[in-house]
Amino acid sequence: MTDLIDPFGRQVSYLRVSVTDRCNYRCVYCMAENMTFLPKSDLLSLEELDRVCSAFVERGVDKIRLTGGEPLVRRGIMGFIENLGRHLKSGALKELTLTTNGSQLSKYANNLADCGVKRINVSVDSLDPVKFHEATRWGHLDDVLEGLEAAKRAGLDVKINAVALKDFNDDEFDRLIAWCGDDGYDLTLIETMPMGDIGSDRLDQYLPLAEVRAQIEKHWTLDSTDYQTGGPAAYSVVRETGKRIGFITPLSHNFCESCNRVRLTCTGNLFMCLGQDDCADLRGPLRMSESNAALHDAIDRAIGQKPKGHDFVIDRRNAGPAVSRHMSVTGG
Ligand code: SAM
Ligand code: SF4
Fold first, then answer.
1. Nearest ligand 1 atom, CA 23
2. Architecture of the 14-330 domain
3. Mutate which of 26, 327, 328, 330 for ligand 1 pocket (most atoms within 8 A of beta carbon)
4. Which residue from 42, 59, 157, 285 lies 20 to 30 Å from 166 (Cα-Cα)?
5. pLDDT < 70: residue spans in the chain
6. Cβ partners under 8 Å of residue 80, min gap 6
7. If you take atom 3 of ligand 2, which residue's CA is the nearest one?
8. What is the phi/psi pair of residue 64, to 5°?
9. Candidates 22, 24, 25: which one to mutate for ligand 2, based on the most atoms within 8 Å of Cβ?
10. Which of 119, 117, 215 has its CA nearest to residue 161?
11. What is the value of pTM for the model shown?
């Protein structure tokens, strides 16, 4: 089967799958506390998600990231991951990974490693238990730290994601860098993205990473590296710890030229760009027949519409979302 090449010559080799929009946390920048989730009947079954993922693997996708919502709270998720592991064994898939809030890792880290998962991203915005609880509304830092220990014992590589939030964790970056250095984690700092109504003003949260970087460089030496993932993170190496630090600035356009990814929602919508509302329905073609012909046609049409770049901007007049869906729909 042919590879997926978009109109700008970029090969799509990376599929991110939001397996659920639900979550056991309510992070302040991600969701309103009283979020309304999709009716369960709208979700693709795990068998259907497997069919779509496998169709992408047939078309040359060699990296899949599971995300959400919280991927590890979807019922039956470990069986799904185990099944996808067959593409790792065959060599068609080079990497199967996930982004998680870490709360379920003490339960699942060993299983994940057994399925062929080698590394995971875990979100930790603060190392202060009170602040952590404030940021996640329903989360407890201890659960995540236990999960990280379990991940270490299982031999999983960990990258920590932290969203930079004005007047909240801007005094913690030194601590986060030192902690990641001590525990052997790479770190990625993320600028807040204007996605979905969160019931508060985003301008209050927005902290430009250029400022953060300048602040960090007062205490740490950031050496340049040619490490790239095709995504929105620009990486450096912290000389004092030897670990990587990435800065995700989604409001800049500097990564669109190398964009190699598309995003599937748990209802079967395929988003060709994180910063655009356009998407293609794969659920209809998937359910049309047991053969995958209609599905592959729909994937081809979708990739043919992948836009050149995104239009993110935090609207300074009304501070409303530039993209109406929440991050938990496409998983970041
Ligand atoms: N629940 C998992 C987690 O928190 O890692 C996976 C899904 S979460 C949507 C993926 C990443 O997106 C997390 O690192 C989270 O901090 C980040 N995120 C969520 N909403 C965001 C927003 N509006 N702007 C920037 N990053 C956001
Ligand atoms: Fe849940 Fe992740 Fe969103 Fe936090 S960022 S509410 S953990 S999906």
1. 1
2. Alpha-Beta Barrel (3.20)
3. 327
4. 157
5. 195-196, 198-203, 251-254, 311-323, 331-332
6. 19, 46, 49, 50, 74
7. 30
8. -125, 130
9. 25
10. 119
11. 0.94
